[in-house]
Every structure is written in C-alpha cells, then in structure tokens.
Design a protein that fits this description.
CATH superfamily: Nucleoside Triphosphate Pyrophosphohydrolase
Oligomer: single chain
Largest sheet: 7 strands, mixed
Helix content: 10-25%
Keywords: Hydrolase
Distance between the termini: 45 Å
GO molecular function, one term: hydrolase activity
Shape: globular
Number of strands: 9
Number of helices: 4
Domain Nudix hydrolase: 31-164
Protein name: NTP pyrophosphohydrolase
Structural class: alpha+beta
CATH architecture: Alpha-Beta Complex
CATH class: Alpha Beta
InterPro entries: NUDIX_hydrolase-like_dom_sf, NUDIX_hydrolase_CS, NUDIX_hydrolase_dom
Order of helices and strands: EEHEEEEHEEEHH
C-alpha cells in the first residue's frame, strides 16, 4: 500500500497557505508547491548530474540536477535539501548556499524551486531506484549538449541562470 505524500501549497513568496497531495500537485492543477535542487560541483568546477530513473513520473531518463526533490508538508526547506541529498546521492556533511529561486511551470505542475549549490569531493552513491546513473560533467560538455533533449527542461532553464 502506498503512503500518500502531502506537500505544502504556497504563495509566490513561499508562504504556506495550505496542503495537498502529490497527485493533486502533478495532475495539471498548477498548484504552487516548493521543491529543492542542489547543484554539486567538485574542486575542478565540474557539475554532477543525475540521470533520472525510467520509473519517474516526470521526465524519465533525462539528465537533471544532482539532487531534486519535493518539500513535505511541515518540513523546512533546508531539511528537505539535506534529506533529498542523503536519499538520492548518499551525500552528507556539506554546506549548501542558496543560489537562486524561481517559479517553474510545465504542463502538469508549478513549482517554486529553491536552488542551492555546494562544492563536494566526497563519495557519491546514487540510489538506483531514483537515479539510473550520475557523473561529473565539464561546463563546456553541458553547453555542447544543450537543446538536444537529453537534459530536463527544468535543468536547461536553471543552467541558463547560473553565472559560470
């Protein structure tokens, strides 16, 4: 039996104004809900990306932000960031800085993305239920593959916001 996940419903400033289910957030209703992203750089300036599992309901099989996940109802943004980092990549013991926020809208959802960055040189062990594979990419390598339908639209938009 599946557990029902509840997400906060928020206004455009990030203030919680209610709660709803994952299903309601992803059914085209465009209910604004918060998510966290973590961009993981190594000491060489390369960016770690994950390839999303084919079982994902959104953008399966595409390369994406190192960590990306939903904030649960009642959970602090930073707590969600560190929880998702442990769950998806097995990483911990790092300091993350908020980089930028923006609203991302697709055909089925609307998210307030809280995007963080960190430099991490430790061991990364992707959760193979969530992530098919992961690796560090050079910035020029990413640029060469933009607009070729291998990255998620969300990642491509976020990459355009980065001052690299």
């Amino acid at each position: 039996m599946r557990t029902i996940e509840y997400f906060p419903v928020i206004d455009e400033n990030g203030n919680t104004i209610g709660k709803t289910t994952r299903y309601e957030c992803h059914n085209g209703s465009k209910i604004l809900h918060p998510v966290v992203h973590l961009h993981v750089f190594n000491e060489k300036g390369e960016l770690f990306l994950q390839k999303r599992s084919e079982q994902k309901d959104i953008q399966p099989g595409k390369w994406d932000t190192a960590v990306g996940g939903h904030v649960n109802y009642g959970e602090k943004i930073e707590d969600a960031l560190y929880r998702e980092s442990r769950e998806e990549l097995g990483i911990f013991g790092f300091e993350a800085q908020l980089w930028f926020r923006y609203i991302f809208e697709s055909d089925i959802e609307r998210e307030l993305v809280n995007s963080y960055r960190t430099i991490y040189n430790g061991v990364i062990i992707p959760d193979l239920d969530e992530v098919t594979e992961g690796r560090f990419w050079t910035i020029s390598e990413i640029k060469n593959f933009l607009k070729r339908d291998i990255f998620t639209p969300n990642f491509e938009y976020e990459f355009s916001l980065m001052k690299l």
